[in-house]
Amino acid sequence: MKSLEKPYPRTSQLHIAKRDAGRFTERRNVAESERAQVESELLDAKKIVKELTSRIEELNSRLNVRNQDLEKLKSTEKGGSLGMALRNPQNTQHSKVIKELGYAKEELIKLKQDMASIIEEKRRAEQEIETSGLKMQSFSSKVEALRKEVEELNEETVLVELARIEAIKEFRAIEAQRKEDAEKHSAAMEENRKKMNDMVQEIQISEELQEKLASTNSDVEVLESELKQVKEMDRWTQKNESLRSGSDFLEKDLSLLHSLKEDLETAKNDLASIKRNSFQFMASMDGVRNELKRISEESARLNKKGNKADLTIQNLNAKLLRAKAKLEAASDNEGKASSIASSLLISLEQLTNEAEEAEKERVTAIEEAAKVKEEIQKTESETVLAEERWEAAIQELETIKLSEATVLNNLKRLVDITMKSRASASSTTITISKFEYEYLTGRAAQAVEIADKKVAAAQAWVKALQASEKEISMKTEVVRKEIQELKMEEEQKGLKMEHSPSAKMLVDMQLQKWEEINEKNLEQSQNGLRTKSNSISGKMTPGRRAKFRSSISTATRTPRAASFAVRRRRKVIPNIAKLFNSKSNDENL
Q1: Which GO terms describe its biological process (predicted)?
Q2: Domain range holding 480?
Q3: Residue 329 and residue 339: Cα distance in Å, rounded?
Q4: DSSP state at residue 484
Q5: Whole-angstrom distance between the N-terminal and C-terminal Cα of the chain?
Q6: In sequence order, what are the residues at sequence separation of 6 or more whose Cβ sits closer than 8 angstroms to the Cβ of residue 565?
Q7: Is position 64 within any domain?
Q8: What is the total count of domains within the chain?
Q9: C-alpha angle with apex 134: 131 to 140, nearest 5 degrees?
Q10: Is the residue at 369 inside a domain?
């Protein structure tokens, strides 16, 4: 009976398990909605990356067009007319190149801004991944708790089944005992009925004997009265007719008297035997009464036992029905819990498989990132070499321009002298010396060489731009791979739950620390760049100064690429200033 009452408190645990399962499904739905939001954000990031790639492709196409134009210009300058007339188209080409370089610089600034936004999105995605990891840990702990509860429910169902089997055994034993008691009771009742019938018959016989005894007693009384009358008659006869009566009459009376005495003695004997039998009958009647009382008490006791047995059977039936209902409910809950546990196990297996695949992909992504970093370093070294070549070409151009300026001054002075001398001389033809002719032809060759060197410098600048754009494309490719990796991790994680406030506090503290460190780095980089920009601003126009400030603001958003961008700008901006100075010198010439 105690074993049947044990499973009662497990119903509350089953309700708690159902409630936890409901909460789990709700949290799963919330996690799926958050996952959809993250996927939408990843799609937006993909769109941004696609736009960046399209912009990079446009820049590459523009650079290819510029390279073709420069090659055409170079070929035309080499094979075209020689003279001072080439300076104006050359200057226009240089102005176009400078404008295109300005546009390319603006595009690079925009690309860096986009890179900063992508890095910010990456940081947010990493934070989301960390929170999803914490939530997955809480999910796994809850799955373990549900698994333990399912095991406990299985144990409880086994105990309930054992209690049900024991209750069935007890019920069968009680039913067998009840049948045995009923059979014994029915046998005792039959025996009592037989005894009662026998006693009734004996009572009837005793009543008949009492009637006979009463009749014999009346006969004896009649005989005694007659005997008294006979004795009185004898006395009267003896007194009055003693003489008259004869001896025959006396003999007859004596024989009659003897017969009467014998009958009286037999009647007395019968009466004594009847009295004895009546006493025995009364004793037997008392025994029968006592037996009837005992039988009635036994029957009452058996009836009470039967009623108690009926009550116990009814209680057992009610308990069995309740136990069956609880067992069915427990089996249903166990089925639901087993289905939930199986689904959770399947999802855990899928998550483990996806985690393994993600780990493999992460390893491959790390290897690819290392390769991309190596390529970026190579491109940086190539850009540095290209910038060095460009600076060397610009220095050569400056030296050539200085020598050209001195030669031009000498030439102007000689031309003035010759013009004055020719003006003083009146003749239709102008004769020049061989030296002047050779000088003029050599000046044209030098102008062609200067144009070639300027074209080579512009090509070096274009190559540097191509290298920087290649670096940006590599970085965008790395960011794209990282975004794909984040998406894969988000798809693997999938489920998100509310993590503990302590974890939130830790994440917030880490974010605050990271933001403070970034702000310090940004302030340091801004201070350094401002000092350098102040040193360079003397050689720049106001428009260029504004562009340089905007480029600094974008560089601060990408701390990862700040060092390379600042180093590159440090080298490029003075070169652009030199290029403008060279352009102004050419125009003056």
Answers
A1: chloroplast accumulation movement; chloroplast avoidance movement
A2: 8-140+382-588
A3: 15
A4: H
A5: 119
A6: 112, 551, 555, 558
A7: yes
A8: 1
A9: 140
A10: no
Residue with tokens 């009265």: 225
The C-alpha atoms of residue 315 and residue 309 are separated, in whole angstroms, by 10
CA-CA distance, 237 to 48, in Å (whole number)?
Answer: 171
**Residue pLDDT tens, the chain, 589 long:** 434 334 444 555 556 666 666 676 676 677 667 667 766 766 776 677 677 667 667 766 766 676 676 666 556 544 444 444 444 444 565 566 667 666 766 766 776 676 677 677 767 767 777 776 677 777 777 777 777 777 777 787 788 778 778 878 888 888 888 788 778 877 877 887 787 787 778 777 777 877 877 777 777 777 777 777 777 776 776 666 654 555 555 566 667 767 777 777 777 787 777 777 767 767 777 777 787 788 778 778 877 877 777 787 788 778 778 877 777 777 777 777 677 767 777 877 777 787 788 778 777 777 877 777 787 777 777 777 877 877 777 787 788 778 778 877 887 787 777 777 766 665 556 666 666 666 666 666 776 777 777 777 777 777 777 777 777 777 777 777 777 777 676 666 554 444 444 444 554 565 566 566 656 655 654 454 444 344 433 333 333 333 333 333 333 344 444 344 434 444 444 444 444 455 445 444 4
Tokens of 345: 């196990």
DSSP 431-449: ---HHHHHHHHHHHHHHHH
Q: For the full predicted model, state whether its pTM sits above 0.70.
A: no
d(CA 177, CA 531): 109
* Domain contains 461: yes
Which pair of tokens denotes residue 570?
């440090």
Q: Please count the helices (runs of H) and the strands (runs of E) in the chain.
A: 8, 0
| Cβ 97 vs Cβ 458: under 8 Å | yes
Cα distances (Å, whole numbers) of residue 524 to 123, 476, 549:
22, 26, 15
Tokens of 45: 């990031």
Instruction: Say if CB 455 and CB 72 are below 8 A apart.
Output: no
Contacts 24+ apart (CB under 8 A), 186-190: 188/295, 188/298, 188/299, 189/295, 189/299
Residue 210 lies in a domain: no
Rounded-to-5 percentages of helix, strand, coil across the chain: 95, 0, 5
Closest CA to 470 of 383, 391, 554, 388: 383
